[in-house]
Specification:
The chain is of the alpha/beta class and 177 residues long. The chain contains seven helices and six strands.
């Protein structure tokens, strides 16, 4: 918060980014965060979906349901003020307004050169889930890796769902509604 205020004072464009999960997505909390952002001249606020991956894997039981996300997104859309609110693509997927961009529009390249289909598809050791691993640079040619990957029907589906969440669900054999 101190850094955001200093950046605004220095004329730097600032975006706040927060993750939605039960501890943060109460109406009271969201309203007070929004009020603070508006009062302090923060132009943008991005709301992110919670992924039980990496460090978050220990918090799997706190994963909100789709209907909880949709309800709180509706509430957030009703807040109006200086700060522009927008949602991460994987939240908009829940509303059916966009499709999963994995491979089709975006990829991730990890510091060790591993190319992955989705930046969130990592386990609790920060290793990519096997079916999201596309290749490794510079050993493999990136254009060839992407050409091959885009042909895999798994990544070209036209349906709206998050494959990372689906993969975790399958692996955990539990339902993340
Ligand atoms: S798999 Fe999920 S998190 Fe990854 S790009 Fe698709 S919607 Fe986003």
């Amino acid at each position: 918060m101190v850094a955001m205020k200093k950046c605004v004072a220095a004329g730097i464009k600032v975006r706040a980014a927060t993750v939605l999960y039960p501890a943060t997505m109460t109406k009271k909390n969201l309203k007070s965060v929004y009020r603070w952002l508006c009062e302090n001249g923060i132009p943008e606020w991005e709301l992110l979906r919670f992924y039980p991956v990496g460090r978050g894997i220990k918090l799997t039981k706190f994963t909100p349901s789709n209907s909880e996300y949709l309800k709180i997104m509706k509430f957030l859309r009703g807040l109006h003020g200086f700060t522009r609110i927008f949602f991460q693509h994987s939240l908009k997927i829940l509303e059916g307004t966009i499709k999963c961009p994995a491979v089709v529009e975006s990829i991730g390249i990890l510091p060790n050169g591993i190319v992955i289909a989705c930046a969130w598809a990592i386990d609790d050791n920060c290793r990519p889930y096997p079916s999201f691993r596309l290749g490794k640079l510079p050993v493999d040619d990136l254009d060839e890796v992407l050409e091959k990957a885009i042909k895999i029907s798994e990544f070209c589906t036209k349906t709206n769902f998050c494959r990372t969440i689906a993969y975790i669900q399958k692996g955990n054999k539990r339902e993340v509604k």
